[in-house]
UniProtKB/TrEMBL annotation:
Matching InterPro entries: Metalloprtase-TldD/E_C, Metalloprtase-TldD/E_cen_dom, Metalloprtase-TldD/E_N, PmbA, TldD/PmbA_N, TldD/PmbA_sf
Protein name from the UniProt record: TldD/PmbA family protein
Transmembrane segments: none
Domain Metalloprotease TldD/E central: 119-224
Alphabetized SUPFAM superfamilies for the sequence: Putative modulator of DNA gyrase, PmbA/TldD
Organism: Qipengyuania polymorpha
Residues annotated as domain Metalloprotease TldD/E N-terminal: 26-90
Pfam families: PmbA_TldD_1st, PmbA_TldD_2nd, PmbA_TldD_3rd
Domain annotation Metalloprotease TldD/E C-terminal: ranges: 232-447
Length: 448
């Protein structure tokens, strides 16, 4: 796999080639990935996978016309042909008066911050095999587990580089490690399955395989013999593993491109008090070892830690160059890039700050409610905020988690759900979006 210096050099070469071919402006992004994973099932080696990929994408502008194209051919002749083809394509594209590169004065300058993204301690295939086996063994060792979908361990490394014709040129590398297990509890038609997984930038930050595997086994066994429940409006409590999806819907609705398309349920509510004033949602792209940390965005702007929700209100919209121009707003450093195409928008390392009570106290006054541990279905309308998802979890009776439940649906509207949201104090910073246990009163639960 190429290193970040080589990736950056190729990007700079490609941008220069595009200029010589007639482009008025251009940027190039290169990505390289290498990963290795080992899967074990029922104590036997099931799969060993090793993959490497390298890709470079070029975006060119001829006036207000643009085109994007990408390739995995890093040879000089291949890059030259790519640049020539991109400029030709741009000449036939429709004009877009909002598209363009970030202005030179807005680009990141200075030294890259030390974010500790790249772990030099790369494990051997033997280590991955032992870790995968230990994870599955721990899951299968939980009483009530009857079968296994497998345990796995993986390690990966990635390189990203970006160069623009306005003078930006930087690159960085990052690593990733993960453990997971999925097992089955029960027999016949009463079988239930569940999983556990953990990921980290540094191998030393992963929990033990025994901890991950045991969690998978306990979760599967706890789901045995589910029942339905009556349909009514009830308090609903979301466990942290799935509660981050609610913040994900908020971030999607704060996207500048969505606002420009008038395809967001937050449109017209940017000055409203959407949450309880005590709730804060924070973004930390510069967090050390963060799973989505990055020093600069997909257009070369510096990423900045910021508060996204404070005093109940959002800070504004997450923008890239095109959406900022269309909306008449400033740039926020949220552009995201894949190997090809125009930049999108994404946030990095978002968390909701914890509340002041434990999950037990948060549920303590609920006479009848629902504790949700799994969601399925895509019933979220991003334009209206209407929310309807299939769910499984546990009944809450007199403040205590009781029997498992399944074959139910929960529904509401995200604007109303945000206003009714209360967080517990059990925040853990282990995902790209981290939230504590969340309680929302007055949701519709549809069961039997």
């Amino acid at each position: 796999m190429i290193d970040k210096e080589t990736a950056l050099a190729r990007c700079q070469d490609l941008v220069a080639l595009a200029g010589r071919m007639g482009a008025d402006a251009a940027d190039a992004v290169a990505r390289a990935n290498a990963s290795e994973s080992v899967s074990m099932r029922l104590g036997q080696l099931e799969e060993v996978e090793r993959s490497e990929s390298e890709e470079i994408g070029l975006r060119v502008f001829v006036g207000k016309r643009s085109a994007s194209i990408n390739t995995s051919d890093f040879a000089e002749d291949g890059l030259k042909a790519l640049a020539e083809r991109a400029v030709q394509m741009a000449g036939h594209a429709p004009e877009d008066r909002h598209a363009g590169l970030a202005p030179e004065e807005a680009l990141f300058t200075g030294e890259l911050p030390e974010l500790e993204l790249d772990d030099p301690d790369q494990p051997s295939p033997e280590y991955l095999r032992e870790a995968a086996l230990a994870t599955e063994d721990a899951a299968r060792g939980v009483a009530g587990v009857t079968n296994s979908n497998g345990g796995s361990a993986s390690a990966s490394r990635a390189v990203v580089a970006l160069a623009t014709s306005t003078g930006f040129g930087r690159g960085y590398a990052g690593s990733g490690f993960s453990l997971s297990a999925s097992v089955i509890a029960g027999e016949g038609g009463g079988m239930q399955t569940d999983y556990a997984s953990r990921s980290a930038r540094f191998r030393a930050d992963l929990p033990s395989p025994e901890m991950v595997g045991s969690e998978a086994g306990r979760r599967a066994v706890a789901r045995l013999n589910p029942v339905s429940m009556p349909s009514r409006k009830l308090p609903v409590v979301f466990e942290p593993r799935i509660a981050g999806g609610l913040v994900g819907h908020l971030l999607g609705a704060m996207s500048g491109p969505a606002i420009a398309r008038k395809a967001s349920f937050l449109l017209g509510h940017e000055d409203d008090e959407l949450f309880d004033p005590a709730i804060r949602v924070v973004e930390e792209p510069l967090r050390k070892r963060g799973q989505r940390s990055r020093p600069f965005d997909g257009e070369g702007l510096a990423c900045t830690n910021r508060t996204l929700v404070e005093n109940g209100r959002i800070f504004g919209w997450l923008t890239n160059v095109a959406s900022a121009d269309q909306l008449g707003l400033g740039l926020t450093g949220h552009a995201s890039r894949s190997g090809g195409g125009s930049p999108g928008v994404s946030a990095s390392n978002v968390h909701m700050e914890p509340g002041s009570v434990s999950p037990e106290a948060l549920m303590g006054d609920i006479e009848d409610g629902l504790y949700v541990t799994s969601l399925f279905g895509q019933g979220v309308n991003t334009v209206t905020g209407d929310y309807s998802r299939g769910a499984t979890g546990f009944r809450i009776r007199k403040g205590e988690i009781a029997e498992p439940v399944a074959e139910i649906t929960i529904a509401g509207n995200l604007l109303e759900m945000f206003r009714a949201l209360t967080p517990a104090d059990d925040l853990e910073m282990i995902r790209s979006i981290n939230v504590p246990t969340l309680r929302i009163d007055g949701m519709t639960v549809a069961g039997e």
